[in-house]
Design goal:
By secondary structure, this protein is mostly helical. The protein has 4 domains: 184 residues, Alpha Horseshoe (Serine Threonine Protein Phosphatase 5, Tetratricopeptide repeat); 63 residues, no CATH class; 120 residues, Tetratricopeptide repeat domain (Serine Threonine Protein Phosphatase 5, Tetratricopeptide repeat, Alpha Horseshoe), CATH 1.25.40; 44 residues, Herpes Virus-1 (2-Layer Sandwich). It is 76% helix and 1% strand. The protein has 21 helices and 2 strands. Strands 1-2 form a two-stranded antiparallel sheet. The longest helix is centred in the N-terminal third of the chain and has 23 residues. It starts with a helix and ends in a 15-residue tail after the last helix. Bound molecules: zinc ion (ZN) (2 copies).
Length: 438
C-alpha cells in the first residue's frame, strides 16, 4: 500500500528487503524467515532502522502473496516497536509519540496479515488495538495519523464484511473513504471503493458493485500502482460476470492477471484463476472451468487464503450442478461449508445453505433440504439481513439497495416508496436522516 512505496525508494533497504528476502522465501522452510531476520538485524544496528526494514519487507511479502511470512514479520515488528517504546519511556517525551505511530502501524500489519489468512475476528481485534495507539499519537502530523486511521478502518471494514457484519463494515468503509477523499489519499480511496464494491456484490446489488470499482478506476489516471489496478480489475470482472457481461469480465481478468504476474502477486493470481474458471462456468464450458478451479484451489492453499478456497469450492460445486452431477456438487458444497463455518464467513455459509437446500430438493432428499433451509433462515436473522421497510430479506436476489447515513441498508425501491421518506427517520433505528433521500 501507499506507505510502502515511499520507503521502497530508499536504497538502504532495497536489496535486503526484496532480493535477499525473496531468496529466503524460496528456500521455503519455516526457519528461512527467522534466518533472514537475523541477517537483517546484523546489518542494521539501530532498532528504528530494523523497524523500517521490516516495514519495507512486510509491504513486499504482502504484494507477493506470502501471507504467512507477512504475519511472522509483523509479530517481529511489534516486538521491536515495543523495545523502542520501553527505551523511550525513560528518555524524553517527544520521540515517544511517534513510537505510538510505529506500534499502530505494526498492529495494522498484523491485522492485515490475519485478514489475508482469513482470520477475520483476530483481524478486527488487532485493528482495535492499532486504533488505540493512533489515539495516543497526539504529537504526530495529521498526515501520518489519518493515513494509518484510514487504513485501519479499511482493514476492519473488510474483516466485518467477511464476518457478515454489514452495518459495521459499511460504517468502517465509509469512514475510510471519507478520510481518503479529505486527505487526497489515492491508494486508500481506490481500496475503499473496491471494498465497498465487494460489500454490494455480496448483497447482490450489482449496479453498486460495479459503480464503486469504476469510481476507483477514475483514480488510476492519478497514479499507477499495479496492486490497485489488480484490485479494480478483479472486482469489475466479478461484477460484469454477475450481470452476464462475459466479454467485459474476461477482459478485466486478463488485465488483472497481467499485472499480478508482473509483480509476482500469488494471492491475486489465485483470484484471477478463480475468475477465469467462473467465466468458463458461466459459458457452460466445464472442460476449461474444472482445470482452472483446480489450479485456483492449490494456489489459494499455498498462500493460505481459506476464504478464497471456499469461493473456489463453491464455484466448482456450481459447475457440477450445471452438469447435473448432484453428488459431486453436494460433496464440494459441504467441503466449502466446513471451511466457511471455521473462518466464520457467514455470508458464504448463508448462500451455501441456500444452494444445498435446492440441490437436496432436486435429489428428493427432503429432510436434508429442510435442515439447510432452517440453517439458512437462522443465518439471515443472525446477520439481520432484512429490509427495515418491507421486512423482506436483502441479498436473496439481484436488487438495488440504498444505505441510510446510519448504515442501515434497505431496498432502493422501499426507500423511494415507503412513508419514511416523509418522516425522515430510519425505520430500523429511528435516527433522523441527515442527507436528503435519493
Ligand atoms: Zn424493502
Ligand atoms: Zn438506521
Amino acid at each position: 500500500m501507499g506507505q510502502i512505496n515511499e520507503v521502497m525508494k530508499d536504497e538502504k533497504y532495497a536489496k535486503i528487503c526484496s532480493h535477499d528476502l525473496l531468496c529466503a522465501l524460496q528456500e521455503g522452510d519455516s526457519e528461512s524467515i527467522k534466518r533472514w531476520v537475523k541477517v537483517m538485524s546484523k546489518k542494521f544496528r539501530s532498532l528504528r532502522e530494523r523497524w523500517e526494514a521490516l516495514r519495507v519487507a512486510i509491504g513486499n511479502v504482502e504484494s507477493w502473496g506470502r501471507y504467512r511470512a507477512m504475519m511472522e514479520l509483523a509479530i517481529r515488528q511489534i516486538e521491536i516497536a515495543q523495545d523502542i517504546k520501553a527505551k523511550t519511556d525513560t528518555s524524553g517525551r517527544e520521540s515517544l509519540v511517534s513510537v505510538n505511530a510505529m506500534l499502530a502501524e505494526s498492529y495494522l500489519s498484523l491485522a492485515r496479515s490475519n485478514l489475508r489468512l482469513s482470520e477475520f475476528s483476530k483481524c478486527a481485534d488487532y485493528c482495535g488495538k492499532s486504533l488505540t495507539y493512533v489515539s495516543k499519537c497526539r504529537g504526530d502530523s495529521p498526515e501520518v495519523t489519518s493515513r494509518i486511521a484510514g487504513e485501519i478502518q479499511l482493514c476492519r471494514g473488510s474483516a466485518h464484511l467477511r464476518l457478515g457484519n454489514y452495518k459495521n463494515s459499511l460504517e468502517d468503509l465509509e469512514r475510510a473513504l471519507s478520510i481518503a477523499t479529505t486527505r487526497q489519499n489515492v491508494d486508500l480511496e481506490c481500496m475503499s471503493c473496491c471494498a465497498l464494491g465487494r460489500l454490494y456484490l455480496s448483497l447482490k446489488d450489482y449496479e453498486k458493485a460495479a459503480f464503486f470499482p469504476l469510481k476507483a478506476s477514475e483514480t488510476l489516471s492519478r497514479q499507477d500502482s499495479p496492486s490497485n489496478r489488480i484490485a479494480i480489475q478483479l472486482h469489475l470482472s466479478e461484477a460484469y460476470r454477475k450481470v452476464g457481461k462475459l466479454d467485459e469480465a474476461l477482459g478485466s481478468s486478463e488485465e488483472a492477471i497481467k499485472f499480478a504476474l508482473e509483480i509476482g502477486d500469488r494471492g491475486s493470481q489465485a483470484y484471477c484463476l478463480l475468475s477465469f474458471a467462473d467465466i468458463h462456468r458461466a459459458k457452460l464450458d466445464s472442460e476449461k472451468a474444472f482445470p482452472r478451479y483446480e489450479s485456483a484451489i492449490s494456489m489459494m492453499r499455498e498462500v493460505g487464503d481459506r476464504y478464497g478456497e471456499v469461493k473456489t469450492l463453491v464455484g466448482k460445486a456450481k459447475m457440477h450442478l450445471k452438469k447435473k452431477d448432484y453428488k459431486e456438487a453436494v460433496k464440494h458444497y459441504k467441503e466449502a461449508m466446513n471451511i466457511a463455518e471455521l473462518i466464520q464467513a457467514r455470508t458464504e455459509s448463508l448462500s451455501i445453505n441456500g444452494e444445498l437446500a435446492l440441490t437436496y430438493q432436486r435429489m428428493t432428499r427432503l429432510q436434508e433440504s429442510r435442515e439447510c433451509l432452517v440453517q439458512y433462515h437462522k443465518l439471515l436473522r443472525e446477520m439481520d439481513l432484512y429490509c427495515g421497510a418491507c421486512n423482506e430479506p436483502i441479498s436473496e436476489k439481484h436488487q438495488q439497495l440504498e444505505a441510510l447515513p446510519c448504515s442501515h441498508i434497505f431496498h432502493l425501491e422501499c426507500v423511494s416508496e415507503h412513508g419514511f421518506v416523509n418522516t425522515r427517520a430510519c425505520p430500523s433505528c429511528r435516527k433522523m436522516m441527515s442527507k436528503p433521500p435519493p
